[in-house]
Fold each of these.
Amino acid sequence: MKIFLDTANVAELREAVAMGLVDGCTTNPSLIAKEKRPFRPLVEEICSVVPGDVSLEVVATDFEGMVKEGKELAQVAKNVVVKCPLTKDGLKAVKYLSGEGIRINQTLCFSAPQALLSAKAGATYISPFLGRLDDIGAVGMDLIRDICEIYRNYGFKTQVLAASIRNPLHVVDAAKAGAHVCTMPFAVLEMLMKHPLTDIGLKKFLDDWNKSGASI
Ligand code: G3P
């Protein structure tokens, strides 16, 4: 499973990329706004730092606007994937832009039928929002499983990108369900590395070593 960072923060991206753990990045208008930087230089820097795909989202909501913005965003760098919302106009834009050779991440997916239509429209990635479904008392992971099963049944090439990830359990369950990609905040990536028994074990090893007076 590929790991993407769900952030527009260049410092976080640089740190995770330097560790060799990041395959790509997803942004959205809220994450971009948080950075308080001019849009174009910010996304150009992100695209140069990240070794793989970088999702940049349109803000237009009508078909013509999404197509216009999608074409502009695709010019930013070769690794750009244009993010379009899962609306009627968004599906139309996915069909059109993917026909033009522009790769699309269809975002704000909350149901299996939405995901089926997105794959038929030719999306490169589908982004089901796990955490936001959990937030309203639904089981977000059921949606990931359903989409993986439907795509497998018909050999759709659209990759399942598990989004709105809040904790390590989401990451493990998405991997077990067969999601192709999991995009997570930097804080969740750090959580994946940590275990209290690792820290306790390391301290014990080093205490014993230091008491022995040995050296390497
Ligand atoms: O980037 C889309 C998605 O991952 C947003 O997550 O935490 O705002 O629900 P969240």
Amino acid sequence: MKDVSTLHWIGEVDGFLRMIDQTKLPVELVELDCRDAETVWEAIKSLRVRGAPAIGVAAAYGVCLGIQSAVDNDETSFYKRLDETTEYLAASRPTAVNLFWALERMKRTAALLHGKPTAEIAAALLAEARAIHEEDRRMCRAIGRHGAVLLPDGCGVLTHCNAGGLATSDYGTALAVIFAAAESGKTLHVYADETRPLLQGARLTTWELQQRGIDTTLICDNMAAQVMRERRIQAVVVGADRIAANGDAANKIGTYGAALLAAAHNIPFYVAAPSSTFDLSISSGDDIPIEQRDPREVTHGFGRQTAPDGVKVYNPAFDVTPAELISAIICEHGLIRPVNREMIAEMFKQNDSQ
Ligand code: MRU
């Protein structure tokens, strides 16, 4: 297999961002070179790069690209360009808070350097983007370690969408838990929901699990209840795009349904996410903005019309799973269990990471 990673920066301050074009998987493993912020914006919008942490890392590098043309300008126009770029990238997708978290970090870095040569600020911004990238890598490994103990040897695990290496710097969040459990010697049987309408589960999750030699079965989303009833699933592990202060968690549309099914079958339901996915400024899931996407994703999926012309379509890309349905949140600092406002506040107080 080609040696490729979800995202990497090539070169120095005048370099560029190379990413796997996830819309081409699993048929083709091809990379896309982004040499300006517009290409990064389009890649995020059209899910060439997707998954909350990966979107954050891509946006941070997108800022580095956006300011390249302003490095020789005076300070005022350099900062103006920075503001325009961050605002522009923030408008690519609304739900994953990692995007806004990463852009805020980039802005904060620059704000501390007022008065310095613009070349120095540009170098500091690239260093910050690289730090965000590297920290995400470490957080994913830690999530894997903390979560692996939750999966009993021989168990069946259901996952929804793709929260793997493709959705992060590498290794993933929900899939990190599965990878780490497998690496510790456990045998697992993973059921991957295909994840309508854009099939991240079918196209990306099964591909990643196959690469790592993990026993994987693809199911359509509407089969999960039957598979649970047949007692094939002992745990559900998913990622998240934004977790409110009370533990309500937004993730790919269909996650809430999977959580309800898990509760009905007495199966633990785990959310794996780094601290960068928490939005403590939002009190509950009711306030999480839910992205609405093009109806054609439902009526013309992958180039084939599957509904009559003119039919009304509702296409929210995410849903919110209430905290009470989540058995534990697995973050890089450990397990948050039970999932409630107090436990989340305590975890952040102890680790001072927001
Ligand atoms: O629309 P997508 O593919 O970006 O949605 C991705 C998900 O919902 C993931 O589960 C989530 O971002 C967590 S990724 C570690």
Amino acid sequence: MADAIAIYPGSFDPITLGHLDIIERGSQLFTKVIVAVLCNPSKKPLFSIEERIAQIRTCTQQLDRVEVDNFSGLSVDYAKQKKAKILLRGLRVLSDFEKELQMAHTNKTLRQDIETVFLTTSTEYSFLSSSVVKEIAQFGGTIDHLVPPNVARELYRCYNKADATTRRPPK
Ligand code: PNS
């Protein structure tokens, strides 16, 4: 395990099983992973910062080396403040790569001493995003194979749908 603190920054609106997979695997690699939820006043998230932090805390409570926090401003500045050397990001498909590479290069120009480390998302989550999950939940589809149970409940409640966690995805 690298003796380093990693920041895993993101919107997490809401956290998915794909994010959780990166957090779990990151926590095997680094001494600490800080899941950092971005406060972005220009975005209109479905869940408030407090709700997203509570959701992430609930589904990561069994992971000793994981902390959850929020930040505003630049990821690299937050990393520096936390004495972290690593920005952790997940890569799903090729289309992620361009945006992620641009972000990693930009961050490198801002702070030389902070490295971006990518983990490839496990194949079963390669299609998964927070937006896809919200769209399915909005139309009452099953999402319990896509997000942690606490998040599924909150999404259904949010969209005023009956709790569909007992339904199975169609074969
Ligand atoms: O989950 P997301 O929305 O893909 O996460 C994007 C995030 C939060 C990692 C990125 O937007 C970010 O780091 N924002 C903070 C501002 C910043 O550091 N910008 C410079 C890097 S392009």
